[in-house]
Every structure is written in structure tokens, then in C-alpha cells.
Amino acid sequence: MNETVELAILSVQKANKSFCRFISANDVGATGSHQSGFYIPKGSAELLFDTPGTKGENKDKTINIKWQNDFDTISRAIYYGTGTRNEYRLTRFGKGFPFLNDDNVGDLFILSHIEADQYEGYVLSNDDDIEDFFTAFDLTSNETNKLINKTISVSAENKLLGCFNGFIALLNKSFPSTIDLANTSRTCFNTAYGITNKKVIAEPDKGLLQWLNAEYQLFKAIELEVYSENINVPFNNLDTLINFANTILNRRKSRAGKSLENHLAEVFKIFDLKFEPQCITEDYKKPDFIFPGKKQYHDNNYDKAKLVFLASKTTCKDRWRQIINEADRIEIKHLFTLQQGISKNQLNEMYKEGVRLVVPKPYISSFPKEYQEKIFSLEGFISFTNSKQK
Fold it and tell me: Which of 63, 64, 181, 277 is the most exposed place for a label (fewest CB within 10 A)?
């Protein structure tokens, strides 16, 4: 989540009262009106004044607004009550104020009353940022232009934990299958944080890492529930303790590998790539992913240049050699890993053997500089594979 969005959410959470609305053409003076400034509807007047304005009179006060947690304006909150006017506005932001231009029409304006005459203001322009803010307070786009009701809002984190707890309650102190674990954690996260296929397509590397983190959270919560009785009772002997510890460690290792495969498969489905997981090649080998699939792989008339191989391993410093002979028709083997950083010597050996790394975009910088351009991000790998399927 963008840092500005996080700050805006925190501002609302700590405020006495908060308000949001989309910036209009009238606000920026683009309708030909002589009055620009943020319009505040009468139903939200308490954000600015202790008592409502009286028709027939104007009233105003000076307030301090810190914008984007970056700079301050000494602004004017005013009620226009004379003549035909009956409205509240915020004005006086100083020369060069960046949020009352034509380009700001459609942005989300957020104002929080912190204390006395101190306010905090935020303007969100990006669609994803606006959706993240709405998700945090259980809002929709048609619930703006009014005070934010924090008493009924539920944070995304609380929604996620609530979804996890509901799933755990159904398990009756047992572990789910790896596919159920992956699917449930992903569904809970997407629902809590408003993650859509559009967002995943825009940032597949980010989406994958978020899903992996969510599944780890859920798995840890299940472990605590399942093993709660074991860890609260002393073990009778050392062998029992060791066996118990090994059971936990083996389950964790097994889950981590399957987790990565499951979430990668979901990303590929969202991008509408043709692929087949765990299909059998020579000597009953089972590569993690063959694009477009087993039928094409075993069809000698199918152009092998259009075949793509992808293995997935959470770490690969030693285990990368396992994939070299998993698909003889495909010379270059792509390997997706969560490994952060490998030595130049190992990378050189990998590349000599035809292995090409794919890692989450933020991890690329952890590899030697001379290899960074040779490493695919998940987004880059998807683009590469999609070009083969056209």
C-alpha cells in the first residue's frame, strides 16, 4: 500500500472528525465560477464549525492544514450565508498550491480535524490508492461527500483476521490441504483489501508477494490453534520433543513449496496464459509448469521454440541443478525463486547450464549488478511467455 494512503488512513483513525469527497470542476474553478476552493456540504458543517451558519450572515475562521504530511497552509474555513448563497468552503491555500488544478478533478480529497484549528489534508489521485482508502473504511464511491463514520468501519486487517478465524473454526484443530490453504488465504486477502484481477495484472509481482505473506499469516494462526495443547504441556522425553519438532518443520517446508506453485498458477490464470502444471515428460519427470502444455510438449511437430519451462523453488542455491533434465525438448529452463541474492560464480554456472532466474521484481536488486538485466521479474516472464503464445 502506498505510504500516502497509509498516512491518510492513520489521519482519519486518529481524528475527531473526517470527511472525503471527489474534487469537482467547481472546486478548481473550471466551471467559470469566480469561487474556487473545496466545497463542504452543509451536512458536514461540524467538521469546520461548532455551530451551523445562520442564513443572512457570513462567518469564517483561520485553520492550519498539513497536506500529505509534507507542507502547511494557513487557510480559511468560511460559511457564505448572505444573498442567495448558503454553502461552506475551504479557501486560501497560497500561490502554487498543487491540488486545485484541472488535473485534480476526480481526485479524492480527505480532510481530518485533529484538534482545535489543526487539520490534516490528503489528496489521492491513483485509482488503486483511492480503492485502498475506501477498503480501509468500508466505503464505496457513492458514500463520499460526507463525514466518514468510523464507528461502523472495519479495517482491512481486521477483515482479513476475521476471515482467517472463520476458516480456522471450521477446521476443528486440523490442517487443511495445501490448495485449500492457498485458495482461502488468497480469497480472504483479496476481499479484505479489495484486490481485483485488474490490480494483479497491473502489478503481478506485488500481488504474488502479498498472497504469499497472507498465506503465511494464516498458516501460523492454524499452527497455533492445532498445536496449542501440545506446547502448553511438558514433553515426557527428548525423543517425543524431537519428533514433534520435525513434524512441524516438515509440514512448513512442504507447505512453502506448494504455496508458491499454487499462487503462481493463479497469476497465470488471471493473465489467461496456457499452461499445465506437473505434466509428465521424459523418465516420468514432472516439471512444475510447461507452457502451453503436455500435448504440445509431446508433439514433435509442435515448434519447440514456443515451449516454455518454469520451475518454482523457494530457495535454489543448491537445488537448481534438479531441474536441468526435467524437459529435454526445452533448452532454456526458467526458475522462479524467492531466493534473494546468489553469488556471481553460482549464477555463472546456472547460465552455462541454461538456467534463467525469475524473481519478484523487488528482489532483483539483491543480485550482482551485472546479472540484474538478465533476470526476469514475474511480470517480465509473463510478457515473455505471452509472446510465445501469440
Answer: 64
